[in-house]
Amino acid sequence: MVDNIPVMAHHLSFDQIETFNEDGFLAVESLLDDDDLVPLEQEYAEVLDEVSLRLFSEGAISSPYEELTFGERYCRLLGESPELHRFFNVSLPLSNTPEKPKNFCMHAGPAAFSLLRNPKLLDVVESILGPEVYSNPVQQVRMKPPLRMLSKENAEHSNVGVTTWHQDTVALMPEAEATQMLTVWVAMTDATEQNGCLKSIAGSHHQGQVTHCPGKQIAAEMYIPEAIIGDRKAVSLPLNRGGIVLFDKHNFHCAGANRSSDLRWSFDLRYNRTGQPTGRPAFPGFVARSRAHPESELQDAAAWKRLWDEARDNILSGRYTDPIFEQKRWDDNSKVAICA
Ligand SMILES: O=C(O)CCC(=O)C(=O)O
Questions:
Q1: Whole-model pTM?
Q2: Is the pLDDT of residue 319 over 80?
Q3: Is the C-beta atom of 172 inside 6 A of ligand 1?
Q4: Using CA positions, which residue lies closest to atom 8 of ligand 1?
Q5: CA gap 276, 253 in Å, rounded
Q6: What digits encode the pLDDT tens for the residues 18-64?
Q7: Does ligand 1 come within 6 angstroms of the Cβ of 185?
Q8: Could you tell me if residue 4 is inside a domain?
Q9: CATH number, position 168
Q10: 35 C-alpha to ligand 1 centroid (Å)
């Protein structure tokens, strides 16, 4: 801090902010490095070890595949246990009544919490949202095996397969209509055309909220129909490991299939201005940065995990009765033709 002006080493430049405002997205290369990413890779390797040994001891998989690399092992195990990805996600599933409570799970480890509070990410977020930043719980890990290794259902599940064209607002409950929310997508592995990097349509956010159609196989995978995309040209966003992409909440974006032979891994995190509704009240957020009240920032990884454990208990016990997620974008007859 110099004379109360915060020093933000990774603040976006004026030109970058202008580009973001014009296009509705912005790629920032090489923001994160090994110091940021290796602790996450180590934590995820431990989770994979723990989960695979447990599933093996329960007879749910044929081998824990300890001899394989992290990526090979995850991909092989997901083939045998299609809901394995849930143990790695940084959010609970979007269901009030999960069929299998054992798989109503997530990962809330200290390295994941450190990613949410990473000062480089928060400098970038502060450039767009201002100094009071809240970690919005609409966040996902995407660990995507090569398409050929996926079941039909998983091929259409955006945590592991393709991601259809959408705006991020579609994930929010109506309470967050006016919330200023920013998506920060983080490349844990290189993202290429071949392994299904992001694609976006520049300027699409100026259109505001558009119709989304119901997911064809998986309800949560709502998509913007062709009739709305039209012949606008998509821009591919390949990025090296450690790069990030920012999205305005109304930007149209998607991600293709992984046609490589390796795992493609990313996180997508969201932040909003503190005090505004998150759009996912069933799940916990926290103050990630506050220039006015730094004492309000959550700095304790164990406390963050406890918040998620409580949310899980509240849902599984039926104490949380409001819908976690609403498939609200197609409850309207005018959409029937456009979605057909
Ligand atoms: O990585 C992906 O496949 C999709 C990410 C995405 O849609 C998002 O960040 O909103």
A1: 0.96
A2: yes
A3: no
A4: 268
A5: 24
A6: 999 999 999 999 999 999 999 999 999 999 999 999 999 999 999 99
A7: yes
A8: no
A9: 2.60.120.620
A10: 24
Domain of residue 247 covers 14-320+327-339
> Of all atoms in ligand 1, which is nearest to the CA of residue 266?
1
Q: Which residues of 38-59 are buried (b: 16+ CB within 10 A; e: fewer)?
A: ebbeebbeebbeebbeebbeee
Backbone angles phi, psi at 310, to 5 degrees: -65, -40
Q: Which strand ranges, in their side-by-side order, compose the sheet holding 198-200?
A: 163-166, 253-255, 198-200, 235-237
Tell me which of 25, 138, 140 to substitute to probe ligand 1's pocket, judged by most ligand atoms within 8 Å of the beta carbon: 140
Residues in a beta bridge with 269: 184
Provide the domain count of the chain: 1
- Per the structure block, which two tokens stand in for 265? 């891994």
State which amino acid sits at residue 150.
L
Closest-CA residue, ligand 1 atom 9, reads 268
Rounded Cα–Cα distance for residues 315 and 305 (Å): 16
Radius of gyration of the chain (CA): 19
Token look-up 């998620």 returns 308
Closest atom of ligand 1 to 168 CA is 10
| Alpha carbon of 91 to ligand 1 centroid (Å) | 14
Query: Is 9 among the domain residues?
Result: no
Spatial distance between the Cα atoms of 103 and 92, rounded to a whole number of angstroms: 9
Residue type for 100, please?
A: K
* CA 8 from centroid of its chain's CA atoms: 25
Torsion angle of alpha carbons 125, 126, 131, 134, nearest 10°? 0
248 falls within a domain: yes
Does residue 5 sit within a domain?
no
Among all chains, which residue has been given the structure tokens 């849930």?
86
Question: 284-295: per-residue pLDDT in tens?
Answer: 999 999 999 999
For residue 231, which amino acid is it? D
In angstroms, what is the span from residue 57 Cα to ligand 1's centroid?
34
Distance 268 CA to ligand 1 centre (A): 6
Residue 278 to residue 176: CA distance in whole angstroms: 6
Amino acid at 222: M
